[in-house]
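Lab notebook page, bench 4
Experiment: in silico fold of construct C2
Operator: M.H.
Input chain length: 385 residues
Purpose: comparison with the prior construct
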Amino acid sequence: MFSFQLYIPRAAGSAQCAFWLPGADLYKYMFRTGGAPSGTCRFMQERKFFMVFYTKPLGREKLAEDVLKADRAHCRKYGPCGVGEQALYLSSFYLDRRYYVPFSCVERVFKRVAMSRGGFTGKGMFASLPYLVVVCRDGSEKQCLFKREEQVDELLSDIRKHYPDIRLQSLAVEERLRRRAEEEAARVRPKISEKAESQIRGLLKAREYLEERPALYEALSRSARAKRVNERSNPAYRWAALAIVLLGILASLYGLWAVVTRAGYGIYFTLFGLAAVFLFAGANVLPTGKNNRAYVDRRWREACEAMEHHLHGYSGFPLPARYAHPVVLTRMIRAIEDARAVTAEETFEVIKEDLKRLNASVQVDQEEYDEIMAVKPMFLVEGYL
């Protein structure tokens, strides 16, 4: 992967020679000669420096160098991580796709969400930190922080599609799901009327129709979340962040000038200026072409129009296009099974009231949280109309 120009110091009466030596052959040369020739130490240090930016294996199992290079170059990228054909690529604190784990070593991959206090109140949505957690067969664990939770969901969907043998829940979640399934099987549901059963069959059919085009309802959910976040953000913060970034750029330029002219304290201006630029550029708060009110509103309208066009082929769909999501239909089916409503119209109103009651004092499990995050932003941006 690296070639080194190896200088052999000249002996008495002989000329100095130089030649290129591949990195692997350099170590062979050292082993055979009993040490590094003079002049190679600097090149070994350079090789060690550049290896900092190379993808490293997390466990003992490694991929061949040529296989790793090709697989990483063509991996499907999701935020700081990636999914290749041979391995799963994970981030470090600073670098994207810094480590890799061959799929033969992966035991399970799942999402972990850390939530702060807040909730779906008038002040905004859950303030959350999404993590991707990878558990290897040797018991080791690695978690990677993502900026956007939908990137974690997309990565898990990719793994579910291409690597169905990998488990996508933690041990605790699997145990909780098992207990819930047992409780559901043992629970005696109230007897419902024939009309209610007919409504359930209609909702199941509508859900199957939606699931034929998952990209449409996923776009609806994503655009609603982006619109909700943008609406609850103070525009003054964005322009303040832009002003700080501009000041950081000016400080960096002055710092570089001060370093060149030896005016003093130049390095400090440069470092603080660059820190401000990278901090706010990475925080996704700057007003950009894709981070402004007009853009997110247009995305929401386009997602609603695409769903309306898709529903033209389904006569009597039980939901408005702006709320057409399988999770909404699933929660409606549960409400009818629990005898909380009979018709689709009544059930839809029940679902609205359930979502309105969620606030900072309500604790939910991971499965419930995923459902809420998928559908509640759509109701919030439309005012539950």
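Observations: The two ends are 61 Å apart (CA to CA). Confidence is low (pLDDT under 50) at residues 1-52, 116-126.
Next step: discuss at group meeting.
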